[in-house]
Design a protein that fits this description.
This protein is mainly alpha-helical. It contains 15 helices and no strands. The chain is globular. The protein starts with 18 loop residues before the first helix and ends in a 12-residue tail after the last helix. The N terminus and C terminus are likely disordered.
Length: 431
């Protein structure tokens, strides 16, 4: 079955009748998932610094739960491919709840190996939070896919903003139970992931991926081995769709690497220069809010001006954010907050445009496995950025890290300009 191309673009009125219900359920669960996702991002590096006693290793948690997310993206993507979005995503949220509890136990017993295991499992669960954006696009008309993806990401903002702001309150709760303060956000993550699993498992009916396959009328996937006999490869895709998929992955990789590297070390940078943990949490909360609150703008630009121009704009914003973070006085929380807000906006522009490129290229009967496969590459790149962030800061300070991020984003921007933009879907005027 041929995948969607510019020649078969449908109109806004072709939206499937079940799309609104699907988006409503996903919006509800993503509000919960945002809080769960924010826990590891906010205190992961601080936990490592406290338990390992080394700033150079503070990037290890980010790398671990990003590696876990890569494994989870592959596994959850395969589960969605075989059984549908509802069973696959519900499984992922349950894994996230389990990993959160393991992290809490690790802090209680001061066990570094258990902490690493918990972060890996927690990371595997967080993959389902990001994979949910694809579920929002399963039934969307091609001309509205960017906005469908952005709606799901936008819903994550409420929890993402609230999560870091609850660091103090959840820390107090943890202390009242004779647990370390930094375990508090992971208690919140456990509750949020569990609630999301219950809501989605009960209410995501009909399953959007299974319905999209039935509507498309293509061949059903092999329920035992998935597409292509057990291995998810890009073989068999038409050349134009292959270029679109690789282009989408490249845009998401660049956005993820720059964003994760700078975001991971900002709390450490701030606390090392006298800022309170709550202040660092507020800055990360603003960053998380910008990551998702800017989604409507990204979705509009993707659908109206094109996938590729939006991706190029995202690279420019990422470069500016990294330069501002590098120039910001260490003692200035507002300046660092502004840089992190821009970092979140740049990430969102790249992530929504890249996600839409991948969805445009993937045929319904193989869509979930391909999407999970693409996210594996994105997350592995993010893990590398998280691991390298601590090393760069230990070697040359926060300025070296942000400078490297600016150079990477600048080179990518110049590449886009030189090539006239990466190949992308030409839905609604992309060029």
């Amino acid at each position: 079955m041929a995948s969607p191309t510019a020649s078969n673009v449908t109109t806004d009125h072709d939206e499937h009748p079940a799309q609104r219900r699907v988006l409503a359920v996903l919006v509800t669960t993503q509000i919960l998932n945002g809080a769960a996702l924010a826990a590891g991002i906010t205190v992961g590096a601080l936990l490592a610094e406290e338990m390992l006693g080394s700033t150079g290793l503070a990037g290890v948690p980010s790398a671990l739960f990003t590696i876990g997310a890569a494994v989870g993206a592959a596994g959850i993507g395969r589960a969605c491919q075989r059984w549908g979005r509802r069973p696959g995503l519900t499984l992922g949220y349950g894994i996230g709840a389990l990993g959160s509890l393991v992290v809490v136990a690790a802090t209680a017993w001061d066990s570094v190996p258990l902490l690493f295991l918990g972060l890996l499992v927690y990371g595997a669960g967080t993959a389902s939070v990001m994979l949910a954006r694809y579920a929002g696009a399963d039934l969307a008309a091609p001309a509205r896919r960017g906005r469908a993806v952005s709606t799901v990401l936008f819903a994550t903002a409420a929890g993402a903003i609230a999560g870091p702001g609850l660091v103090g309150a959840t820390g107090d709760l943890a202390r009242s139970w004779d647990l370390p303060r930094l375990s508090g956000p992971f208690l919140l993550a456990f509750v949020a992931f569990l609630a999301a699993a219950l809501v989605l498992g009960a209410l995501l009916r009909p399953d959007p991926l299974l319905l999209a396959r039935a509507t498309a009328g293509g061949p059903a996937p092999d329920a035992t081995t998935g597409p292509r006999g057990g291995r998810t490869t890009l073989r068999g895709l038409p050349p134009e769709d292959l270029r679109r998929m690789v282009a989408g992955a490249a845009v998401m990789v660049l956005s993820q690497v720059v964003m994760i590297a700078i975001m991971t070390m900002t709390p450490v940078h701030m606390t090392d220069h006298g800022h309170a943990t709550g202040t660092a949490g507020l800055v990360i909360g603003l960053h998380m809010g910008a990551m998702y609150l800017s989604s409507p703008l990204s979705g509009y630009l993707v659908d109206r001006t094109g996938r590729t121009p939006t991706a190029a704009l995202g690279a420019v914003v990422l470069c500016g954010a990294a330069l501002l973070a590098s120039a910001a006085p260490p003692g200035s929380a507002p300046a660092l907050a502004l840089a992190l807000v821009l970092l979140g906006i740049g990430w969102n522009l790249g992530f929504v445009s890249g996600t839409t490129m991948v969805t445009d290229a993937a045929p319904p009967d193989r869509r979930a496995a391909y999407q999970g496969f693409m996210d594996v590459g994105v997350l592995i790149a993010g893990a590398s950025g998280g691991l390298a962030s601590g090393v760069l800061v230990a070697a040359g300070g926060f300025g070296l890290l942000t400078g490297a991020g600016a150079v990477l984003a600048l080179l990518f921007t110049l590449y886009l300009v030189a090539r006239g933009g990466l190949p992308g879907s030409r839905v609604r005027g992309d060029g």
